[in-house]
Amino acid sequence: xxxxxxxxxxxxxxxSIFVLGVVGNEYKCSEVLFRKSKCDYQECGLMCVLKRQxxxxxxxxxxxxxxxxxxxxx
Length: 74
Prior knowledge:
A hairpin with a 2-residue loop joins β2 and β3. The relative contact order is 0.20. By secondary structure, this protein is an alpha+beta fold. The longest helix is centred in the first third of the chain and has 23 residues, at about 1-25. A three-stranded antiparallel β-sheet has the order 1-3-2, with helices on one face. The chain starts with a helix and ends with a strand. About 45% of the residues lie in helices and about 30% in strands. It comes from Arabidopsis thaliana x Arabidopsis arenosa. This is S locus-related glycoprotein 1 binding pollen coat protein. InterPro entries: DEFL. Belongs to the DEFL family.
């Protein structure tokens, strides 16, 4: 009984790692869309969807905000 539970747990862990690895590799490439003193999240998201159909993010680097787009590599 104990070995059956241990085997089931091991299979569950291996399956979870495999699924997370596949989902985690979905968006690999990224591109900087613009650098401004203020980041407009709607503009950043719209540009990313129109240009690459990916996920956008605004991050602050020094004095500027950088709008970047993560998308699936071709």
